[in-house]
C-alpha cells in the first residue's frame, strides 16, 4: 500500500475524526477484526534491533524479534525463546533449553545455531551493550539444536538480565551469516520469530505488522494486525486517541500536559507499569572534551542553575521525580547520601569566576549549542527551560534542531556541546548505568555509549569490581562510592526519574504483561469479548 492510498483509506474510513468526528468508523471496524492502530513518534531510522536500540525501533522491533527471556514486573526472568534455564553453582555457566517449535517468519526453523551466531558474532560487532555483556563469555556453544551454553570467564550476577529483546535480539543466521550486517536488505524488512511479522513500511506514513500464523505459542497472537502510524504533530496524536482513531499511545507520544485529560476519558485507560526494567533517568549531557565543560567546576555551576523540581512538576506534570544521581531510586544499589546542589545563581557565578570565565560588557560569559533531541515537545521544552535557567549566569545557549538520524549521528560522533538524553538502566547498574561513565566505553560513532567522554580511573575500577562481585552488600558499597564520586564530578546534569504513561483503548486486555511494557511482543494482547 502506498502512502497516498493509506491516507485515502484513513479519510474514507474515519480519519476525519482528527477534525472532531468521533469515533472513527475505521477504528471501530478494526476493533471487531482484532486489529490495533498505535501511534509511533518519531519514525524509527531502521527496524533491526541489533543495529539500533532507539525507542521507536524497540517499540516496533519488540513485536518482530525475540530473545531468550522476558522479565516480569519484579525483574524475574520469564520464558521466551528459552523454555527453561539453569545457572551453575559457581555462577559461570548458563544453560538455556530452547523452544523446539519456533520458526522464522520465512518458514525456516529456529535453532541453537541462530543463538550462537547472534550472541557470539553479529551482536558482538554491532550492538554496544550486548558486546559488553557477551565479551564476558569464555564460550557460547550449541550443545544440540535446542540447547545453548554460555560459559563466563568469571561470575557476573546481572548476566541473567541480559536477554530481553532489545539487549540480545536473536537474528536468523541463514539470512545474515557472511553478509554485511549494517547494509543487509533485511534491516528494513526484518525477519524474526515474534508473534507479528513485517508487512510493509511506507516512510512518513505507517509501519504494518500482521499476525504470524506459525507462532510457536499456541493460539497467539490474538491481534490480527498492528498499524504503527507516524504522527509528527503532538495535537494530532492527542486527537487520534481522543476520537478512537488510534487505540494506543506509549512512551512520550502524548505530551505530558495532555495525559491527565486523555486518561480520564471513558473509552481509554492509562498505566505507568511496564517500564520497570528501563527505569530511565533524564539528563542533560555535557561534552566533557570541550572547554570549559572539561572543568568540573563549570559543570557544577550548571547543576546550581538547574531546578529539577521545575522540570518534574511543570514540564513532566508529575510523571517524574527529581533525580539525585546516575542510578534511579527504583532500581537496585541506589544511594541517596550524595552531594546536593542548592539552586543558586550566586554559587554558580562564583564557580564561573573561579575558573576565569568572566562576563563581557553585555554580561555574557560563553555561548554553547544545544542539540535538541527530536522526540517531541517535552524535549523541546526541557531544552528551552535550560536555556532560560542558565542565562542569569551569563551562559548563552543556542538550540539546534535535528531529525532522529542526524541527532544520533551528532551525539555518537561527539559533535555537540549539550543535549538531552535518557538511557535505560536494565535492572542493574552493570548493564545500564556503567556504560555511560566507564572510559573503556568511549567509542566514537556508537550511540548510547560514553558519548560525554567522561573519564575517571576510580570510576572505572569501582564499576569493574561491582560487576563481578557476588556479594550484594559489597556491590552496594562499591556502587554507593561510585555515585558519590559521580555526583561530585557532575559529568552529566541528572534531571528526573521518568514515569511513562501508556494510554490505550479500555477494551484491550493483557497489553502490558512484562517489565518491558510496550516494547514487549503483545502476544497475549486482545480485545475483551
UniProtKB/TrEMBL annotation:
Pfam families reported for this sequence: SBP_bac_5
PANTHER family cross-referenced by the UniProt entry: D,D-DIPEPTIDE-BINDING PERIPLASMIC PROTEIN DDPA-RELATED, PERIPLASMIC BINDING COMPONENT OF ABC TRANSPORTER
Family statement drawn from the similarity comment of this UniProt entry: Belongs to the bacterial solute-binding protein 5 family.
An annotated Gene Ontology molecular function: peptide transmembrane transporter activity
Protein name: Family 5 extracellular solute-binding protein
Keyword Signal: yes
Domain spans labelled Solute-binding protein family: 77-430
GO CC annotations, alphabetized: ATP-binding cassette (ABC) transporter complex; outer membrane-bounded periplasmic space
Matching InterPro entries: Peptide/Ni-bd, SBP_5, SBP_5_dom
Keywords: Signal
GO biological process: peptide transport
Compartments in which it is found: Periplasm
Annotated CDD domains: PBP2_NikA_DppA_OppA_like_13
Amino acid at each position: 500500500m502506498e502512502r497516498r492510498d493509506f491516507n485515502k483509506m484513513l479519510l474514507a474510513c474515519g480519519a476525519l475524526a482528527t477534525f472532531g468526528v468521533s469515533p472513527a468508523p475505521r477504528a471501530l471496524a478494526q476493533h471487531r477484526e482484532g486489529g490495533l492502530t498505535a501511534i509511533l513518534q518519531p519514525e524509527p531510522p531502521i527496524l533491526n534491533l541489533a543495529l539500533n536500540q532507539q525507542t521507536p525501533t524497540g517499540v516496533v522491533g519488540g513485536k518482530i524479534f525475540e530473545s531468550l527471556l522476558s522479565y516480569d514486573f519484579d525483574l524475574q526472568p520469564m520464558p521466551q525463546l528459552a523454555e527453561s534455564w539453569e545457572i551453575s553453582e559457581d555462577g559461570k555457566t548458563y544453560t538455556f533449553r530452547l523452544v523446539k517449535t519456533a520458526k522464522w517468519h520465512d518458514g525456516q526453523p529456529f535453532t541453537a545455531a541462530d543463538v550462537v551466531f547472534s550472541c557470539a558474532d553479529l551482536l558482538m560487532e554491532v550492538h554496544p551493550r550486548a558486546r559488553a555483556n557477551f565479551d564476558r563469555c569464555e564460550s557460547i556453544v550449541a550443545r544440540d539444536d535446542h540447547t545453548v551454553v554460555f560459559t563466563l570467564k568469571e561470575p557476573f550476577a546481572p548476566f541473567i538480565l541480559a536477554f530481553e529483546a532489545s539487549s540480545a535480539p536473536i537474528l536468523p543466521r541463514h539470512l545474515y551469516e557472511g553478509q554485511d550486517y549494517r547494509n543487509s536488505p533485511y534491516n528494513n524488512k526484518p525477519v524474526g520469530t515474534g508473534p507479528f511479522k513485517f508487512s510493509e513500511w511506507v516512510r512518513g506514513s505507517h509501519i504494518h505488522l500482521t499476525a504470524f500464523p506459525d507462532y510457536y505459542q499456541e493460539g497467539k497472537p490474538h491481534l490480527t494486525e498492528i498499524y504503527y502510524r507516524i504522527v509528527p504533530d503532538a495535537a494530532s496524536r492527542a486527537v487520534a486517541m481522543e476520537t478512537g482513531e488510534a487505540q494506543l499511545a506509549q512512551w512520550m507520544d502524548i505530551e505530558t500536559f495532555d495525559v491527565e485529560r486523555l486518561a480520564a476519558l471513558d473509552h481509554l485507560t492509562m498505566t505507568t507499569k511496564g517500564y520497570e526494567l528501563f527505569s530511565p533517568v533524564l539528563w542533560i549531557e555535557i561534552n566533557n572534551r570541550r572547554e570549559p565543560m572539561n572543568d568540573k567546576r563549570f559543570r557544577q555551576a550548571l547543576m546550581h542553575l538547574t531546578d529539577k523540581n521545575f522540570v518534574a512538576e511543570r514540564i513532566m506534570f508529575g510523571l517524574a521525580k527529581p533525580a539525585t544521581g546516575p542510578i534511579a531510586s527504583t532500581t537496585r544499589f541506589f544511594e541517596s547520601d550524595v552531594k546536593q546542589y542548592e539552586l543558586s545563581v550566586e554559587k554558580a557565578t562564583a564557580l564561573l569566576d573561579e575558573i576565569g570565565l568572566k562576563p563581557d560588557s553585555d554580561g555574557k560569559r560563553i555561548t554553547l549549542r544545544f542539540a535538541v533531541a527530536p522526540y517531541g515537545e517535552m524535549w523541546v521544552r526541557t531544552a528551552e527551560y535550560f536555556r532560560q535557567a542558565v542565562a542569569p549566569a551569563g551562559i548563552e545557549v543556542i538550540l539546534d534542531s535535528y531529525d532522529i538520524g542526524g541527532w544520533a549521528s551528532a551525539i555518537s560522533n561527539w559533535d555537540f556541546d549539550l543535549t538531552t538524553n535518557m538511557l535505560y538502566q536494565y535492572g542493574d547498574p552493570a548493564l545500564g548505568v556503567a556504560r555511560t561513565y566507564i572510559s573503556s566505553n568511549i567509542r566514537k560513532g556508537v550511540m548510547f555509549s560514553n558519548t560525554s567522554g567522561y573519564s575517571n580511573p576510580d570510576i572505572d575500577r569501582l564499576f569493574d569490581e561491582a560487576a563481578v562481585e557476588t556479594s550484594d552488600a559489597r556491590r552496594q558499597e562499591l556502587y554507593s562510592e561510585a555515585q558519590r564520586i559521580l555526583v561530585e564530578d557532575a559529568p552529566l546534569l541528572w534531571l528526573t526519574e521518568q514515569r511513562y504513561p501508556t494510554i490505550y483503548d479500555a477494551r484491550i486486555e493483557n497489553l502490558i504483561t512484562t517489565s518491558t511494557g510496550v516494547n514487549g511482543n503483545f502476544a497475549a494482547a486482545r480485545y475483551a469479548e
